[in-house]
Design brief:
Shape: elongated
Number of strands: 3
GO molecular function: tRNA dihydrouridine synthase activity
Structural class: mainly alpha
Number of domains: 2
Number of helices: 9
Order of helices and strands: EHEHEHHHHHHH
Helix content: 40-55%
Pfam families: Dus (PF01207)
Strand order of the largest sheet: 1-2-3
Radius of gyration: 20 Å
InterPro entries: Aldolase_TIM (IPR013785), DUS-like_FMN-bd (IPR035587)
Keywords: NAD, NADP
Largest sheet: 3 strands, parallel
Protein name: tRNA-dihydrouridine(16/17) synthase [NAD(P)(+)]-like
Length: about 190
């Protein structure tokens, strides 16, 4: 029907319209593959694209001609590049662009909240989150970024041991135990 109506390319998201807000859930790439099998025009897959590995897996499973992403780019603007950048490096680059191309503080705040999502949701960063929420000028946002960098750079460099706050009582969990939690540390874009 779409092709006969003149559609020459299609993007399909793997979530249903019922999957909104707290019911978001994962995109169903099998549904995307079923659509691709029924059409002859180029098709892009969308949903759950958060890394280069996701792109490769999605294209292999769906047989799509390409992928599209939205939310993933807000958390990691370097999603399509190899490696995983430090959140503060991305934020500093973003703030340089803001100084060249001014925009409302709400835009800046929104982007920085996405970039620092994992760090700002840690209990120990409630004060930093509040500082971000009340910032209005690029230099104020830059100060918040510096606070996060100064706090978490020693962990990234290995000068301090990071105890993941999301695991209950970190002292009990990490006492002479090997951790097999392969999630990324919160100071990396993800």
């Amino acid at each position: 029907m779409l092709e006969s109506s003149g559609c020459s390319m299609l993007t399909v998201h793997g979530r249903t319209r019922e999957q909104k807000g707290p019911l978001t859930g994962l995109a169903d790439w099998n549904i995307i593959r079923m659509v691709k099998e029924q059409i002859s025009i180029p098709m892009f897959a969308n949903g759950n694209i958060m890394s280069m590995e996701d792109i490769e897996r999605c294209m292999q499973l769906t047989k799509a001609n390409g992928v599209m992403t939205a939310e993933g780019n807000l958390h990691n603007p370097f999603l399509f590049e190899p490696g995983i950048p430090l959140t503060w490096d991305v934020a500093y680059e973003y703030l340089e662009l803001v100084e060249q191309y001014p925009c409302p503080p709400s835009y800046i705040r929104g982007h920085l909240f996405k970039i620092f999502h994992h760090l700002l949701n840690l209990k120990s960063n409630v004060d930093v989150r509040e500082a971000m929420a009340v910032s209005h000028k690029p230099n104020e946002f830059r100060k918040v970024v510096q606070i996060l960098e100064e706090k978490f750079l020693p962990f990234h460099l290995g000068h301090k041991v990071y105890l993941d706050e999301s695991i209950g009582n970190p002292k009990e969990f990490y006492q002479d135990e090997v951790s097999y939690n392969l999630s990324l540390p919160p100071w990396l874009c993800q």
